[in-house]
Amino acid sequence: MTRIIIQNTTVLTLDDDNTFYYPGTIEIRNDKIFSIGDWARDTILDEYDGETTIIDGTDKLVMPGLVDLHFHTSVAKGYGDNLPLWEFLDRIWYPSIRALTPETCLTAALHSYITALKSGTTTVNDMYRHLDSLASAALQTGIRAVISNNIALPEHMLDSVDDNVQAFKRNNNKGNGRIKVWLGLEWMPLSDEPLLAEIGRVKKELGTGVHIHLCESRTEIADSMKRFGKRPVEMVYEAGILGPDCVAAHCVHLSDNEIRLLGETGTSFSHNAGSNAKLGNGVARVQDMLKAGINIGLGVDACECHNSTDMFEEMKITSYMQRATMEDASLGQPSQILRMGTSNGAKALGIDAGMLVAGKKADVILLDLKKDMMFTPLLKEPKEERRRMLESHLVFGCNGSGVDTVIVDGRIVMEGRKVLGVDEENVRQEMDLLFRNLIDSIPKVTVEREK
């Protein structure tokens, strides 16, 4: 049995009552939060039959770990940034992931999970390839991961339903349940009706979830209408894919009926504002989806599409884009955005985490409130104003470099900004070598698109 106690700290619980402690203390036993409360210098620790680690939380903020609801392991960040979505997929993304081996995929996943942890992400919903390698990387780094394949029709040379089923049998519930395997559907242009029906059937047989791209671009919708006479959400609804066990990513161009279908089925939506903006795909109808009662989480997508795994950046972009598009500064308030990045994502993935409440999974991060003056100025009292200022700084004023310590499933996996389970420098060097070797298999891209 293990125990971690963080004392004399600021505790932002993000629970339903906005409970806030300053100074506060949080106790973790094994994989769960045991208690949270006020702290005083004369606080006496209970006797405990096991190992205890005490963390001085002075000038630190303790909050729930971030949940990246739409994530892809990355190999080609910064390459082909000038291309729009469909051209980027054909010329960069698909050639690069087809060229991966289990060994190179492990390196890429280690690198991607390290960067996620270093910016405070404790859970990734990763759709990629070679799931044995993803599971191994998650075990080594300590991150919580929901992993899925890139299922597509055979002619696209990605993954099959059977690939995903076999990966499920080998890897689901590894790491004390920290690793879950879902089915991953690449997107509608690489699918057909029989494939959708098979995914809907297998989802029920396995009792697992589905991670899918939906309505990311106008060209995707046009392709669906041309081939099937129906919009993408209508197609997956009829195949039995939507539901509380489904995460639909992007959803930029939804019709009113598609919003209704997502809401009525309890499907969660991963909003990827940074990726959508960078690839020129538009701004999702977030306010309409909120009105429909849809659970909305946040995701960075792939580093090829966003160039960063930093969910703090994603939260800022999410709020800014809504305010700018709707011309309304009352939208995207920090308290709401923070929950999109934590508890909403956990709910979508069926993880009992996302807020600091006794009995919840201990996925916790500590931020350094003195880091580069990102949290300055900051009132000490009244406590309610300190909480509001912290929420504002977290969404609008800081980035992931402020994260000092990461705890996942009750284990310290990053301390002093060092991920403990891996050699970060070795992974960095291997990642550079991987890309240099991989680049020969990717068609050359021009620096500027033709006018």
Automatic annotation (TrEMBL):
The keyword Lyase does not apply. SUPFAM superfamilies: Composite domain of metallo-dependent hydrolases, Metallo-dependent hydrolases. Residues 61-413 form the Amidohydrolase-related domain. Gene3D superfamilies: Metal-dependent hydrolases (3.20.20.140), Urease, subunit C, domain 1 (2.30.40.10). Keywords: Hydrolase. CDD domains: ATZ_TRZ_like. The keyword Hydrolase applies. GO terms for molecular function: hydrolase activity, acting on carbon-nitrogen (but not peptide) bonds. It comes from the Eukaryota. This is N-ethylammeline chlorohydrolase. It comes from Hyaloscypha bicolor E.
